[in-house]
Amino acid sequence: MNILFRFILFLLISFKVVLGTESAITSDSSSSKIIEKTTNESNVQLIDETRNRFPEILSDAKLLMSEIVISDFNKDTLEVAFLLSRVFELMMEADQIGEMNLEDKEEFDRFNGTFTDLYTHKLNTVQNINAPVMAEKVWTDITEAIEIEMGETNLTVVDDRDGHIPLVRTKQVDQFINYFQTKGRKQFQIWLKRHEEYKGLILPILAEHEMPEEFIYLAMIESGLNPKAYSKANASGMWQFISATGKQYGLSRDWYKDERRDPVKATHAACKYLKDLNTKFDNWYLALAAYNCGEGRVLRASKLHQTYDFWQMHSLPRETRNYIPYFLSAAIIARTPEAYGFKIPKNVKPFEYETIVLKKSADIAVLARVAGLKPNTLREYNPELRQSATPAEGDYILKLPLGVKSRFLSAWNAIPEEERFAPQFVVHRVKYGESLWTISKKYSVSIHDLAAVNKIRNRNKVKVGQKLSVPLKGGRVWGTRDNGGPAGFTKRVYKVKRGDTLGQIAENFRTRASKIRRWNNMKYGSHLIRPGQKLVIWVK
């Protein structure tokens, strides 16, 4: 036993696990425990939830590793399995923290190497563990999770051409095929319709990047080929990029737009990301697995199991172990839908478009009217737009349905300049007693957007007299009390009388109630006015 304890102490010291300068080792009749105590209690600090939790996570993982050694020595198979699963969970949590600093990354890599060596070469009880060691994560993207048993996998090759992703059938793949033919039939039929709609857009981009054409089915299982898809994990768009990864591959997100929802830009970004993953793993299955659960988890699984065979990586999360069979089943069905009882959608209008460049912000309603389209139709061609206007800064490339461009340009050039473009900001001067929160409520915008537009880092600090640019929702904003009205119009101030309605006031001034609401920063749909209230009205 003394040899074992000396080995454990060596592990603890080498990985800086000791919390103080003095440790005591005690034992009793039931078990051996390691009791660590600090000699200087003044050094103990309260945990700050905002600080980097990585050192704390790694310390817990190292302590668990020492307990694994003890349990393995005592041949306690169940305890080893439990402790290993806890270490896996902690390592996955470390992955999710985000970017590590250089010191943390070096420490994590040292621990990862030692833990891998311990797991693969020094634990006698690992061979007796029947269940895979993993962090249990229930996959909720499809109804009930389909249980996947990894191990000796019998493969039936469906398609293995050069330049393509190998399509194989296994027991697991057949389970998903059966799911789509039964419970998921309606869902998959919708996917097939969108496949016909977007394949003319996606396949040429895949070819441009020299990517296998089967990747169109990745977008199918990620989002159902829906550009506006949004997940609980805050992933967005057809390719389900999270914000950080999207930004890394050139997809911007601001008040006006979210390029993760742009089917063209997002497809280019997905190709670059997948190509980078394949360069790292030199295996399309592992690249797909990393796309789902992250590079770190796949690298760790590869080291633990000493293989690049996806089908033998028992420690991958259940979601990822389901992910590849799920993808393969969708690809196999979509290649020959009729063979699996599905109808090939007919008369589907392909996503084809023409573009124009807008130099200034323009109201979606105005653009749609000029193009002879419904606003929702124009939004379908430009799903990245988050507001009722195009971006205020920089050029914006607007997509129009094929054949609309020439008609649009002639009508657009005939519109007066002041009617084309939409000022989307109101200047607000901070008054005494106001805060960023009260200002955001006044204009019905989020405090996050208000801070972002004005580049405010500390949301608790605004100065009296400070000018803030307030982004406004709901279309063009003409004639507020802080800015001028339309060219050629005169400002009038009307005092509301008892019995007045917005409709009556608008009729008296030969305008519309919707304009009066915009001019006075009233919420859209609001018809309530009160006697004595002063309304700004612009008349010719």
Essential attributes:
single chain, 540 residues, mainly alpha, Lysozyme, 5 domains, two-stranded antiparallel ribbon, 20 helices, 10 strands, globular, disordered N terminus
Short description:
The protein is mainly alpha-helical. It has 20 helices and ten strands. The N and C termini lie far apart (97 Å).
Topology, element by element:
Elements: H1 2-14, E1 22-27, E2 32-37, H2 54-73, H3 77-96, H4 102-122, E3 156-159, E4 167-169, H5 171-181, H6 185-208, H7 216-223, H8 243-248, H9 263-281, H10 284-293, H11 295-305, H12 318-335, E5 353-358, H13 364-371, H14 375-381, E6 396-401, H15 405-413, H16 417-420, E7 425-429, H17 436-443, H18 447-453, E8 467-471, E9 490-495, H19 502-508, H20 513-519, E10 534-539
Antiparallel strand pairs: 1-2, 3-4, 5-6, 7-8, 9-10
Helix pairs in contact: 1-2, 2-3, 2-4, 4-11, 5-12, 6-9, 7-12, 9-10, 10-11, 10-12, 13-14
Low-confidence segments, ≥5 residues, pLDDT <50?
1-51, 127-152, 474-484
Cα radius of gyration in angstroms:
30 Å
Mean pLDDT over all positions: 78
Helix content: 40-55%
CATH architecture of the largest domain: Orthogonal Bundle
SS field, number of helical segments: 20
Q: What is the CATH top level name of the largest domain?
A: Mainly Alpha
Number of DSSP strand runs:
10
Proportion of residues in β-strands: 5-15%
Structural class: mainly alpha
N- to C-terminal separation? 97 Å
The oligomerization state is single chain
Largest sheet: 2 strands, antiparallel
- General shape: globular
As for the number of domains, it is 5
Q: What is the H/E order? A: HEEHHHEEHHHHHHHHEHHEHHEHHEEHHE
Strand neighbour order, sheet with most strands: 1-2
CATH fold-level topology of the largest domain: Lysozyme
